[in-house]
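FORM 7B - TANDEM STRUCTURE REPORT

SECTION 1: FIRST PROTEIN
SEQUENCE AND TOKENS:
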Amino acid sequence: GDTLSLDSARDLVLEAGNSSNTEQSKGSNAGFEVGVGASVGAQTGVYAYVQASAGSHKSNVDGSTWQNTQLAGQNIVLKSEGDTTLRGAVVKGDRIDAQIGGDLTIESLQDKLDIQSKESSVGGRVQISAGTAWDASGYASGA
């Protein structure tokens, strides 16, 4: 018939397969702008400005994925004289007969994903003028 039988004189271990992945990235950018202009109104005058910015980023990704071991059949027979371990294993059948001489351990394995990211940026603008149209500003950020 449709019987799948595993028989061990010692321990019987069914384990999932594992695949690990590591990715790293980093980069930077910079910008620079120079301009001139004129303003009429509350702040009248001509002006020149310089604006600059820079930034960087870095990220790390670590992951681990499990692919379960699959046992399927109409009748499943698991025999061991010692311990039986099902670690990330799926057993499907109409009838499952387990004859275990030692301990039975059933363990579910969880996928893992760890992401670390850091970004920073800095910039500023300085404007000089003849008249009342002056300005200075800047910023910095990090995450």
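SECTION 2: SECOND PROTEIN
SEQUENCE AND TOKENS:
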Amino acid sequence: MQIELQRQTGLSYVQQIKSAIAERIRSGLLEEGSTLPSVRQLAKQLSVSLMTVVQAYDELEKSGLIERIQGKGTYVKTHLTTLFEHPSDDSPLGHEKQNANSSRQRQAHANYQWQFAVTDYLPRAQVWNFEPHGPFPGGINLSTAIIDPDLLPHAELNKELEKALRESPHLLTRYGPIEGDLELRTEMARYHKERGMNVTAEDVLITSGVQQGIDLVARCFVGKGDVVIVEAPTYPSALDVFRGRGATIIPVPVDSEGMRLDILTALCDVHPPKIIYTIPTYHNPTGTVMSLRRRQQLLEIAESYHSLIIEDNPWGDLSFEASPPPPSLMQLETDGHVIHLSGFSKTIGPGCRIACLLAKGTVLKRLIGAKSTVDLGSPLLTQRAVLAYLRSKHAKTFPKQLSQALLTKLQAVLTALEQYAPPGVRWTVPLGGVNIWITLPERLRAEDLLAASRAQGISFLLGSACYPGEPEFNHLRISFANAKKEELHRAVRTLCETISSLLQQPRDRWGQEPIL
């Protein structure tokens, strides 16, 4: 377990160690029952005093994340899953079952204790954060930002896959160009030109999803200690990538117009950014849209500090507005500061894993080099199928149809929130995309709500996953695109009733300390 301690963050070593271990626990990298390094081992590894590690472990234990057993060691506490599966089981039998589970898990992990000698460099990963406490069969899943498969063009895509194989049986027997199939890149350039961007096929790199695009940029341009500015809150998996590169991640709050550029400007004087990561159109998780004025100002900031901007645009075509959003950053800029990412997997089929990265000049050449070290090019068969689909008549009308279907779902959620949400609960009204950001009264933690909601068959994403450092604990994200309309009304009603119930309980009945 590699923890990078930084001297100039304003956080003590105790706080940094505590936060690093807590992130691993929260994301599932450290499983319940896992044995943590001894105080002496961790102090030696990090070159800190024994007392520093003792204090960090004390803080983690107070937060309910770890437990120390005299003569045996320090473990990730096993009550976390049990709490979600049996939130009201305070009986002696319930405690007996919990203790038995803890003992079994500790014994299972003891067999792999030697693996702590193999250092890892993965500080956080949100792969389990969307379903952080195991499978969720039979429930209503509002945690993942995916679209109901019944709304996606799977029949049309299957048809194009079969056709591509029939007409070009050699597709599975050879590599395609690392930068992507030329015909698909040409089609992607045409697609983005229609949206006002001055690009050609030479400016296009096909990636295996937007996530890979973010990773390629980080591989090329982010090293240990480099400053990366992100919105707060933001897309959790982007944080995973930047943290994995050892970046100094600095969050900037968002409001109804997007990233707060007054705060960004003040930060840049002290911490000049290498990368600015933003989702200006239908922001994830809030659904807001950055104003044209701020987009122009953001480009000026990037020019002043020679920064690269990653413009993440996963939901650009899924608009609920009568008028289009402001021009993209890629459309507005002229000097090569913007790397634009457009995803097609989410709106065509998540299994496609096809996205488009746009960049100019040597930046793109270096990104192609990074792509060659990762996978030597995205699957050619999938590229050809997506190409054929994008050329079809269905693809021209589908985004508008899908947006209308999603708007109907959104309206069901908003109606239910208006009807059932207790006083003090606030939420965003997204202008596009698939997410709603909900803020609870400050005295109620989203972790406690998730525990109670899962017992009622409802799952959502903890807002704390969307922050890079010390997170806020009274937010949650619900994604409305996957559930059926009738399920959404029932889920939101249940969620609101659960909030009301928790607010009426004494504070000491609300579960464990915040997971940091």
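SECTION 3: OBSERVATIONS ON SECOND PROTEIN
The CA atoms of residues 1 and 119 lie 5 Å apart.
Confidence is low (pLDDT under 50) at residues 81-93, 128-135, 510-516.

SECTION 4: SIGNATURE
Preparer initials: ____
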